[in-house]
Specification:
Elements: H1 14-42, H2 48-71, H3 73-79, H4 87-114, H5 122-145, H6 175-191, H7 197-221, H8 225-231
């Protein structure tokens, strides 16, 4: 009989190790992709606020990796997979990725190049950076707390998924989406582009739609979620929705 001591660490098990490697490649690609979009669309490398954005992004990734590799490497591996993705999630998730990771940054870069917004005070940039850091922190807190924080909407019966009730999940049912929306709405301020608020708002609307559909899926398919939904009444904003 295999005892706990005989079970290798999660990061050393082939399936988990492969998933972690896949997720690492995804994150590196996404970071490089965003950097290329920002500097190509703006036409210059010496864009201070773009570097601030990338710095906060990298810091968030490193902090999350530090905690998750120690506490829940299986979650990293899970986020490296896209199996069992629902059809509606493919559409909404795809549109959100295009809006948040592409359109928002392209508009910001072009605005920086052509000066559509004009100069805004440094305080607005700083406020955007702070809100972006808060959004990234909230997203990371939800990910570290919830061992089933997948990149796709699916019931992880293969991992024995249960309802997460701790951390930020004590206050709203989808705190990760709150963090993602803060990011979408704060990046335009950080980068100094009011025009980028248009794709930012669209990205937030898509994430709200995804939260609604995911919540409905969890209530229908995840045991115990109905009871949790009665205890934590709000999906994203306490007292409102």
């Amino acid at each position: 009989m295999e005892t706990k001591a005989d079970i290798p660490p999660a990061e050393n098990r082939p399936d988990v190790a492969a998933g972690i490697a896949a997720r690492f490649r995804q994150v590196v690609f996404l970071l490089a992709f965003q950097a290329i979009i920002l500097f190509a669309s703006s036409g210059r490398l010496n864009w201070t606020w773009a570097w601030v954005f990338l710095g906060i992004y990298i810091a968030g990734v490193l902090i999350n990796a530090f905690f998750m590799l120690r506490t829940s490497p299986e979650t990293i591996a899970e986020r490296g997979r896209t199996k069992d993705m629902k059809d509606w999630d493919k559409v909404i998730g795809g549109l959100w990725s295009l809006t948040h990771f592409v359109a928002l940054l392209v508009v910001s870069g072009l605005d920086e190049r052509f000066g559509w917004t004009g100069e805004i005070g440094a305080a607005w940039h700083v406020a955007g950076a702070i809100l972006f850091a808060i959004g990234s922190g909230l997203f990371g807190w939800a990910m570290i707390t919830n061992a089933y924080f997948s990149a796709v909407v699916r019931i992880q019966s293969d991992r024995g998924q249960t309802v997460c009730r701790s951390g930020p999940y004590q206050f709203v049912r989808h705190p990760g989406y709150v963090g993602a929306n803060l990011q979408s709405l704060s990046i335009p301020l950080l980068l100094g582009s009011l025009w980028a608020l248009i794709p930012g708002i669209i990205a937030a609307a898509l994430m709200i739609t995804r939260a609604f559909l995911e919540d409905r899926t969890l209530q229908a398919e995840l045991p115990g979620y109905d009871e949790y939904a009665q205890q934590v009444r709000y999906r994203l904003i306490p007292g409102i929705w």
